[in-house]
Write a structure and sequence with these properties.
The structure is a homotetramer.
Chain A: E1 4-9, H1 25-40, H2 45-52, E2 54-65, E3 74-84, E4 88-97, E5 100-113, H3 124-133
Antiparallel strand pairs in A: 1-3, 2-5, 3-4, 4-5
């Protein structure tokens, strides 16, 4: 399984009074990772919405917090595609300091109609792209 | 000039590694204050958008940080309308710990078309409501 | 099992360009729910940190997104304690529109030393309070 | 006056239900710009705190919203130092789409003791660095 890495710098905006990254902020890092993974494959969210009227939404997310990430650190988020379904994708994502895993998540996203939020089928072309790099 | 007060509790989500509220978070508190002021006058953002296709957007904001707000505190935001123009409103807003002012802002919002983002005229009915309590 | 309910109003700050609440924001609502549950039991985060040097951090979180929450809605978060361990608490939390569940989560938090982030034992007094209302 | 440019990609996390970037998020982009400007000069926030016990906090911020920034865009924040005082720095910062200015701000930050939040004098060495590139 191939994976895609994207750098994440920790700014004040992501920390809390505990002195480390606020637990909800990791979800933003993972979403940046998925967006850049998609862009890397040649797709843009805005183009998918404009051309096909679809957006990807998160349906299920399970995250484990192993070690705190700290202010000013340069980390990276590693994104791997685990499954491709009719309308859903399942990712494994990790925020890492070098090889050390700080948080690990399994994230299920679904392709939905941007108006009705009903699931839509992922096009064969897009699916093909996803499967080639899986 | 009458003013409208709304309680704000400080949760972890609003703090940063400096141990106090992150500077951008105060803008959220002020927006909650303006939204509740509007609701108090009988208007809802969603109704304004659905019926008239307008939304209010911030055009200019000047904020002074006087004292830090801290985790777990119960504060209140005080909102006063300073000016009502053809399409714009100017507010004075303060985040207070009792009578002590922690941050003070002057905020200009503009009524715009929700599609084009072009300024629209505030309706006479709405203006009347605003002026009565100014 | 008793549960604790706390109101959540959806402001612009929590929404995204999809027109609904951004998926990471629900974690903030759940944290507000846990903080208010703790306060309801007579404990304050700041007091626990000052007196005992402990803070609660999230170690594991599993969230299911069932229905989108929308701008301007008044919802409530329902918090129930599932388990009390030596240093950990497990909660079931739901964001609801009336009786309809929009998102549901199971959240494990751990009592840790605020300097070392190492797990600490939850005091018998506190545990007693938690168990009584479980 | 020299200026420092830093790229900003707009993700879902920064947008709101109006379909554009939420007004408080621009403050985060500006802070990223100032942090990277500081790093570019050879200083790190964490080092300043550990060695000298100082942090920079925002004391005054005036922002003008000229054009909305949109989801998925690649923009850049341009940071210029306007003034260096005994304990304060004044910056002009702009978020730009190419040469087009979307938001413009004047931001005053103050060097404070990280415990007392009282203003501290900026060291001659640091001041020298700041002045050379002003």
């Amino acid at each position: 399984m191939s994976s895609f890495s994207w750098p994440i710098r920790i700014y004040y905006e992501s920390t809390d009074a505990g002195g480390v990254v606020y637990h909800a902020e990791y979800l933003k890092f993972f979403e940046r990772g998925r967006s850049e993974w998609l862009r890397h494959l040649g797709f843009e969210h805005t183009q998918l919405k404009a051309e096909f009227g679809i957006i990807f939404v998160v349906r299920d997310l399970h995250i484990k917090y192993l070690q705190p990430a700290r202010f000013d650190e340069l980390l990276h988020v590693v994104t791997s595609l685990l499954e491709v379904g009719r309308s859903r994708l399942v990712f494994e994502q990790k925020l890492q300091r070098g090889d050390e895993v700080l948080t690990a998540a399994e994230v299920e996203v679904v392709s939905v109609d941007c108006e009705t939020f009903k699931p839509t089928t992922i096009s064969p072309t897009m699916k093909q792209h996803f499967l080639e790099i899986k």
